[in-house]
Structures are given as structure tokens and as C-alpha cells.
Amino acid sequence: xxxxxxxxxxxxxxxxxxxxxxxxxxxRHLIHEVTSPQAFAGLKEKNRKVRRPxxxxxxxxxxxxxxSLAIDACGPTNALQxxxxxxxxxxxxxxxxxxxxxxxxxxxxxxxELGLIQPGMTVVCGDSHTATHGAFGALAFGIGTSQVEHxxxxxxxxxxKAKSMKVQVDGKLGLGVTAKDIILAIIxxxxxxxxxxxxxxxCGSAIEATSMEERMTICNxxxxxxxxxxxxxxxxxxxxxxxxxxxxxxxxxxxAAVEYWKTLTSDAEAKFDTEVYLTAxxxxxxxxxxxxxxxxxxxxxxxxxxxxxxxxxxxxxxxxALKYMGIQAGQQLSELNVxxxxxxxxxxxxxxxxxxxxxxxxxxxxxxxVTAIVVPGSAQVKxxxxxxxxxxxxxxxxxxxxxxxxxxxxxxxxxxxxEGDRCxxxxxxxxxxxxxxxxxxxxxxxxxxxxxxxxxHFVDVRQLQGVA
Amino acid sequence: MSGIDLHSGTAVPLDQANVDTDQIIPKxxxxxxxxxxxxxxxxxxxxxxxxxxxxxxxxxxxxxxxHKTASILLTRQNFGCGSSRxxxxxxxxxYGFKAIIAPSFADIFYANxxxxxxxxxxxxxxxxxxxxxxxxxxADVCIDINLSAQSVSCEELTFQFDxxxxxxxxxxxxxxxIGQTLELGAHIDNYEQSIPAWRQ
Lengths: 468, 200
Ligand code: SF4
Description:
The structure holds two protein chains of two kinds.
Chain A: H1 5-11, E1 14-18, E2 21-25, E3 28-31, H2 37-45, E4 56-59, H3 76-92, E5 95-97, H4 107-113, E6 122-125, E7 139-142, H5 145-154, E8 156-159, E9 163-170, H6 179-190, E10 198-203, H7 205-208, H8 212-220, E11 229-231, H9 236-242, H10 251-261, E12 274-279, E13 286-288, E14 296-298, H11 312-325, E15 340-343, H12 351-361, E16 371-374, H13 379-387, H14 390-397, E17 400-401, E18 422-425, E19 440-443, H15 446-455
Parallel strand pairs in A: 3-4, 3-6, 4-5, 6-7, 9-10, 9-12, 10-11, 15-16, 15-18, 16-17, 18-19
Antiparallel strand pairs in A: 1-2, 2-8, 13-14
Helix pairs in contact in A: 2-5, 6-8, 12-14, 12-15
Chain B: E1 6-9, E2 11-14, H1 21-24, H2 44-47, E3 72-75, H3 87-95, E4 99-102, H4 107-114, E5 119-122, H5 125-137, E6 143-146, E7 151-154, E8 157-160, H6 165-173, H7 177-182, H8 185-194
Parallel strand pairs in B: 2-3, 3-4, 4-5
Antiparallel strand pairs in B: 1-6, 6-7, 7-8
The complex binds iron/sulfur cluster (SF4).
């Protein structure tokens, strides 16, 4: 029977099945300081051990400072959480990349960077943006802390099989339009809960043309469409990215792996429960106007009115979002003054993202009214950017160049916004209060964020000389 | 853990779709390393007018005197979307909620709820609307949940709901999911034997 990619990876990991109740094996377990302490404590309470510390990797990313490498830089509660992680890793023999380590960074940036994530693997983490790793054709999804404990103890998870959705994007993206705009356009089309209960496979010529980093940006925000995971079939781009990375197979193992990876595509006759089609040429730079990522429009469109929404629930949501965001229906986004810009997060903090932002930053200076920060996704990204001189470009233009971490994506450190602040952000969530109580977040691509920093309001990057 | 099968209580109507986990429990409360004590921070930004939680927002539905003792949360579609933080169900159960009724839930939140003996009940939009009408007309109206029978009743209304048999079983019996899985240890050993070298 013809199978899709999800079904192939799923079946290759079935340990046990009892009716619809499946036990699947987990190849990689990534952990960080926020969602692991209670799982370690639970384990201890029951006198259980981490079954496969060799398949478990830890980093510090959420609760750390981006100004200082000191563990105590963000106060005693954050420090306790970080020390707890260090101690738990030590006690259980788990590899940890702590603050200051050359391989430390946001969990979803370092996993791929180290070659830990490979096609056909199952990957979990107590973090919803684990979906990022689907870019490699790995089945990767976020789990809660009870499930983290379950994986610690058994290296497996109980799961029901999800439905499948094909999202096909064909054609060629216009200049100034990025992977971030593709995924925002997809979420805008299917809605914030449009893929609930599904695993998405992204395909089509526009997806095939993307780099690994762009694929990670797309898969990263799969969760913002409600899906459990997003997948992209591995191809030559994937293989080239992985070759010679630290944890990638070597020698004969590499050859065997590549041979297997090449079988990881959906069969021609494979069935999906839902199919969605987009045309790349029609996608423009996207900006969210509301308080969930599905509330998004192209930069040149007017902000929608509650009356234009398809049902009462969405009318109420729209009305509430407009009030929170302090904007009017019909307004142009270019009229909105931005006083903060955040370039970073597991969505857009890789080297290609920083290069794209630097191309724009080179064109001018950060507006007087704007505070703009650039937070690389990992120590390795930071080092690479510095080798390329990107840090100088940002600093000369008036951006702050920070240490790697989650930073203002969710503000568990001191990178938080104040009530009423309006931020152009390359992160993934524009929820109320996400970046600070009463703060207003607009999600955009790195180039769009950099452009907003220079102009103090949203501009269409396609109209900037030297970009398009 | 003790199981949950029958529950009767009043409901608080949170008339909003897409309630995300950042609203349920904001990030500043995620720095704790324990599982308890999150209830007082539940819906922090909506529930309090100040950061120190000393001034309750009188307009927020949870603060209305008639809903103070509610043990069922009635809400709209896509409840619990966003981050995977299990602090969300921890804060809801610590506050005193036993069940949540909504037309749909985000996947991770749903699984986290099951793992914390918090019963997520999916009803249709129309059924949820009918319950909203009942609760908004009379805050004291009792809602009866019978998990074995997979039913929700309120006065003359009775609705059936779907739930995965494994989830139902583990909620009713309050099972230790890890303990159950560890009984399958031999299968896990066998599987590990079969993993090729390049996928170790
Ligand atoms: S960068 Fe943001 S979304 Fe990504 S892992 Fe960190 S907090 Fe989560």
C-alpha cells in the first residue's frame, strides 16, 4: 500500500501496539531548564533512571541573560532553575551545553547544527517548537513534562496516530519574500487551529528550492497552525547539510544512512486526509496584526474589520485583538510606529537570517525612537556572524548585538517589553503579553524587522533600494 | 493518583476562542522547579490589574462572585494553544478545575491534561453554546459529568462526547502511565536491538 512520509517514519518506530494505543521509540530527546526539573524530580521520587542518557541532550536557553554569561545574571529563581538542570544532567550522565559553552544555544538551533537531528528519526523535547526538526524529515514534536519523564524512563512515548495534511507550495518566491512569509501565509490561509490533530508534510517546488535553514523556519511554526508536527522529505540539500557534522554518521554508516534517507518520501499514490495548495508568486511579505499568528496580512493590505470575519467567535476575537493591539480596522501597517525590534528566536536566528537582516541594516541607521536587538540562536551562529563581520554592521547601524538565547521571544529574562510597546519581531508568537504584559507583537521576517528598525514603522522590504 | 469518573459542579464561562498557554500561565511563573502552587497565578494577566496579584480585575469572569466555586471551565475553540508548558494544566488543577468543556483543544495541551487528571471534554459548537446560555442565565446551574458513560448533562440537556478509550481508562483508574510502559520493557529491549548503527 502506498504510504506517506509520516506513515513511514511512524511505522519504523512502533515498539508495541494495542488497538489504537501505540508505543513509539524516541531517537533524540532534547531538554532545557524550564520543562525538565519536575520530570527529573518525578523520576527520582519513583526511583527510576534515565534509560538512554546517550540519546538525551541538554542546553540552557530560556532563562538566561543575553547580556552576561553569569548564571546569576537574571536573579535567584532563574539561577536555581539553571543549576538544577546542571545537577540533573550531571547525576544522570546527560551531555549539557551550559551558558558560555561553545555549542550552547537555543535547543532548536543547536540540535540541527550539531548534526543530532537526522532524517527518519523521532525527536521530542518539552517545547512546542520541536516541530522545527521536521525540516530534516524527522518526526519531531513538543511534549509536556509528564511525557518528558516518560521518555526519560522508557525512551518511548504513548501516542495515537495523527491525521495527515499535505501543504504544497509551488512556484518561485518574489524578491524580498522569505520562508517566514511562506509559513505565515500558510497559517493565515488555514488558520491558527487549521491543522489541529494533523502532521503536515510540506512539499512542492517552492519548498524543494529552500535551504535547510529556511525549512527549519517553515517547520518551526507548524505548531502555530495547530499541527502536531511538520515534515519535509529529505533530499540532496538535507544530505549536504548533514555531511561531516559532529553527530552525523561517518564512513560506512553514513553510506547506509544516506541510502535509507533516500527512501523517505511519500509514495506517488500516498493519501492525505487534507490537502492545501499555495502559489509562491502570490505570497507577499507578511505582518501579523492581531494576537494569534493566524491574524496575519500582507504588508500592503489594510487591517481587517471584525465584520469581515466569517463567524461570531472570530468577530469577537478580531475585535478583542484590535483593541489589545491598539489599531483600527482599515489602517495601513505602514502607519504603525514601532519602538522595539527583536531579531532572534528559534524561528529566525540562524546565520542566513542574520545575513538577510544585515543586508537591510547596511542601508541606514536604527530610528531614534527604536530599540533594536539582534540575538543569535547559538554560540556557533554568533561566532560565524562575527567572522563575517555582521556584528559590526548591526552595531554600526545602532542595533544591540547580544549573547545567544531565547531572549525576547518570551522574555523569561530581562529582555521584556513594557505595556504599550510595539515590537516588530522575528519570533513565532504574537499572543497577548508574550513579550511583556500589555506589549504588542507583530511577527515578520528578519528583513522586514530590520527595515522597521530603520524606519520606525513597517515598510515593504520590496520597496527598499538595494534589497529587491 | 486517584481516578476521575463522576463529577458534578458549576461552570465558569470563559467566552473566548484560542486561549493560549501564555494567558493560562505567563512565563514569569515558569521559573519554579516544582509542580505545585501555580493556581494563584492562573490567568494572571486577565485576573489581576497589577503585577503583584493584589488587585483583582473585577471584570474578569473568574473573579465574579457567582463563579468563585466553579470546578468546570467552559470555553471556546482551540483552548490551550501555544507552548507545551505543563504548567498550564498544573495551574488549572491547582486552582480547582476538574474538567474543561470546549469545542476543541490544542493537541499538546490535551495530552498534558490527560496526564494530570484534568478531563478535557470536546462538544460541538452548538452544544457548547447551549451550555454557555445555561451558565450565563444561572451561574448556579449544575453540570454533571459521567466519564464512563461519556456524557455531560445540564438540566434537560444531555450530550455525549468522544474520548480515546486509553485516555478514558487512564483517567478513570488514575493510572501511572510510566509504570504501564515499563511493563513492556522486553519490547523496548527488542526494538533497541533492531536499531541500525547509523541511527544510534
Ligand atoms: S526561541 Fe522562543 S519559541 Fe523558540 S524555544 Fe525559545 S522561547 Fe521557545
